[in-house]
Amino acid sequence: MVQQVTRGIKITVETEFEGTFYKDYKINFAFAYQVTIENQSKDSVQLNARHWTIYDALNQPVIVTGEGVIGQKPVLKPGESHTYSSGCLLTSPFGAMKGHYNMVNFTTTKKFNVAIPTFKLSAPFAIN
């Protein structure tokens, strides 16, 4: 588990290896991750967009951007949190992800970024 706080918004990420499977005659390694976004600030905020960089030990980094998270743009009042699960596929048993969320503060109407800390993706059988 990794955690980081940016401007009063705490991000916690937990990962899990889901298994291997073949796609287009190539082995893929499936990883799930659960993100909790906790508003520890005094203002209500909304998550509007996400920006991920996915690192695969055998490939170039992949950039993923989009609105919200899993089709939602959660609004968090002070003390509230939002948890969601997602996943990614790698072509190797090792990788990592990091990124940021684009958010808006409803009190000041200012937009800001919240860092998503780098988290490792590793298949347990490949760890020495």
From TrEMBL:
<feature type="domain" description="ApaG">
    <location>
        <begin position="3"/>
        <end position="128"/>
    </location>
</feature>
<dbReference type="Pfam" id="PF04379">
    <property type="entry name" value="DUF525"/>
</dbReference>
<protein>
    <submittedName>
        <fullName>Co2+/Mg2+ efflux protein ApaG</fullName>
    </submittedName>
</protein>
<dbReference type="InterPro" id="IPR036767">
    <property type="entry name" value="ApaG_sf"/>
</dbReference>
<dbReference type="InterPro" id="IPR007474">
    <property type="entry name" value="ApaG_domain"/>
</dbReference>
